[in-house]
Amino acid sequence: MTDKPILRALRGEVLPTPPVWMMRQAGRYLPEYRATRAKAGDFLSLCYTPELAAEVTLQPIRRYGFDAAILFADILLVPQALGLDLRFVQGEGPRLSTVTDAAGVAALRPLDAIHDTLHPVYETVRILAGALPPEVTLIGFAGAPWTVATYMVAGRGTPDQGPAHRMKDTDRAAFVALIDRITTATIEYLDAQVQAGAEVVKLFDSWAGSLKGADFDDFALEPARRIIAELKRRHPALPVIAFPREAKERYVGFAGAVGADAVAIDNSVAPDWAAAHVQVSGCVQGNLAPHHLVNPADLEAETRRIVDAFSGGPHIFNLGHGITPDADPDNVHRMLAAIRG
Ligand SMILES: Cc1c2[nH]c(c1CCC(=O)O)Cc1[nH]c(c(CCC(=O)O)c1C)Cc1[nH]c(c(CCC(=O)O)c1C)Cc1[nH]c(c(C)c1CCC(=O)O)C2
After folding, report:
1. Is 28 a known ligand-binding residue?
2. Which terminus of the chain, N or C, has less C-beta within 10 A?
3. How far is the CA of 131 from the centre of ligand 1 (A)?
4. How far are the Cα atoms of 34, 76, 177 from residue 106, in angstroms, in the given order?
5. Which domain holds residue 229?
6. pLDDT on residue 114
7. What's the rounded Cα separation, in Å, for the pair 190 and 143?
8. Cβ of residue 43 lying under 6 Å from some atom of ligand 1
9. Residue 42 has what pLDDT?
10. Strand 68-70 to 137-143 pairing
């Protein structure tokens, strides 16, 4: 049995102080991140240079003593490994070549080939596994198939995921084939991260909230269930965190339905409601609104409200979404003081 606080919470233990980390904790709000990114040249070079990716992963651990480190990489590396062109345009976000029909799905690279692109990520994990303090848990991650598909179909981020919805509704067979290709690639990608030393994996389904009714079952729930079942078949003790962002009432029972050990919730969910309806079935991660780290007027009060609401069950403190570049690094210390006392 291990004593790392994150692993204890994921096993269902209720700790006197919740363990804590932050989505996007290695990021542009930190001057040391911006310096290392400048050294790498651009964001993708940073992702694919293991020594530098490991360095930015460790920076927030050194500065704040978080309980978990999350591998520095991006969910869009999988589409790139499947053969799409990917670039990040400064100030605009990602741009990819697109997959919009059956021929596009058929042209994706075969499953075995993904490691040709992704092997530097596994090296980053290996460096981190040997460099982290013993009480810190190393989290690997991937995008969930629906969210990854929304970028592959549109070639960019979209406000309503319209292009992916249209492909799903007009060319169902090709869309199902695309989800299947992402699902199998994600299993091999996460398996390789675990073999390299990731102790927990997290699935980011940032756009799960735009799936309704049976579509939510088919494209948020079922692919996550398949990925987790296969990973746990290969690694029975592996804890998994699922993040079906903006799932609202579908957060209820989600972890159990997909076989995850914890569900991460966004900040549109009231902590008291989530404690009563979601945490009753297991560990919950979340859910401070990131804007409190920009404008800290209610930072301590909101942090305490979340800690108190979830104090009766297993809880990992986190934000409801990633910390933003305009956040003040000192506010993170204030948040930690409010959690840890
Ligand atoms: C949708 C999504 C992406 N990437 C990710 C998601 C899912 C989570 C979410 O909803 O935020 C996940 C992600 N992206 C990044 C991580 C690393 C780990 C972490 O610190 O959380 C993780 C887990 C680094 C990153 N990924 C990105 C940055 C900023 C890049 C930079 O340095 O310029 C970082 C630190 C870039 C990125 N990557 C992506 C977009 C849309 C963008 C551009 C928008 C932005 O700039 O924030 C795709």
Report:
1. yes
2. N
3. 23
4. 39, 19, 9
5. 5-340
6. 98
7. 10
8. yes
9. 94
10. parallel
The number of residues making up the chain comes to 341
For ligand 1, atom 38, which residue shows the shortest CA distance? 74
Distance (angstroms) between ligand 1 centre and the Cα of 7 equals: 24
How far is Cα 327 from Cα 169, in angstroms, rounded to an integer? 39
Residue 150 has pLDDT above 80, yes or no: yes
Distance CA 270, CA 293 (A): 18
156 is annotated as an active-site residue: no
2-34 per-position pLDDT tens digit: 689 999 999 999 999 999 999 999 999 999 999
CATH of residue 97's domain is 3.20.20.210
Closest CA to 84 of 143, 154, 167, 144: 154
Q: Which of 74, 191, 205, 261 is catalytic?
A: 74
Q: Is 63 among the catalytic positions? A: no
Q: Which residue, by CA, sits nearest to atom 1 of ligand 1?
A: 206
Could you tell me if the CB of 27 is within 6 A of ligand 1?
yes
ipTM of the complex: 0.93
Tell whether ligand 1 has an atom less than 6 A from the beta carbon of residue 78: no
Domain count, the chain: 1
Q: How many CB atoms lie within 10 A of CB 252?
A: 18
pLDDT at 156: 98
Instruction: For 301-331, write each residue's pLDDT tens digit.
Output: 999 999 999 999 999 999 999 999 999 999 9
The answer to whether 151 is a known catalytic residue is: yes
Q: Give 279's contacts (C-beta < 8 A, 6+ positions apart).
A: 310, 312, 313, 314, 315
C-alpha–C-alpha distance, residues 216 and 214, integer Å: 5
The C-alpha torsion from 198 through 75 and 53 to 51, rounded to 10°, is: 70
